[in-house]
Amino acid sequence: MITKLEHCDAEIADHIFSIFQASYKIEAQLIGAANFPPLSRSAADIAQSGSQFYGFSEHASLAAVIEIVLEDYCLDINSLTVSPDYFRRGIASKLIRYVLVNFEYAQAVVETAVRNHPAIKLYKQQGFVEYKRWTPSHGIEKLAMSLRAAP
């Protein structure tokens, strides 16, 4: 079941934080990053975020979280994390489809590390295409992908 998460609530922010930490530790290993910026985000940062968070729960347990910002008909997927206990069950695809179906947007965008091949494959399966590559100051090469809304 997918529901909106009230991330301003400290307990819910802690749950989101726990999933972020577990998932991002694996992503950092996958891409070979010793210093992975998403791991420095705190539960307080999450609680104070202006983003919207949606969670996929199974058996009353939060299994995955998608974080979005919708502004000027641009749907920005800021993060998508799945608890390692729930990897390879199609949950990430369900969350992406959920936001693509339930929000009005002209363009959806997402960024990920160039070396994060599973994420790139996932977004391509949803119709996203790469449009930019760059290396920010933290040194992890990134790419941006976008999807135009169907007319």
From TrEMBL:
<protein>
    <submittedName>
        <fullName>GCN5-related N-acetyltransferase</fullName>
    </submittedName>
</protein>
<dbReference type="Pfam" id="PF00583">
    <property type="entry name" value="Acetyltransf_1"/>
</dbReference>
<dbReference type="InterPro" id="IPR000182">
    <property type="entry name" value="GNAT_dom"/>
</dbReference>
<feature type="domain" description="N-acetyltransferase">
    <location>
        <begin position="1"/>
        <end position="150"/>
    </location>
</feature>
<dbReference type="InterPro" id="IPR016181">
    <property type="entry name" value="Acyl_CoA_acyltransferase"/>
</dbReference>
<keyword id="KW-0808">Transferase</keyword>
<dbReference type="GO" id="GO:0016747">
    <property type="term" value="F:acyltransferase activity, transferring groups other than amino-acyl groups"/>
</dbReference>
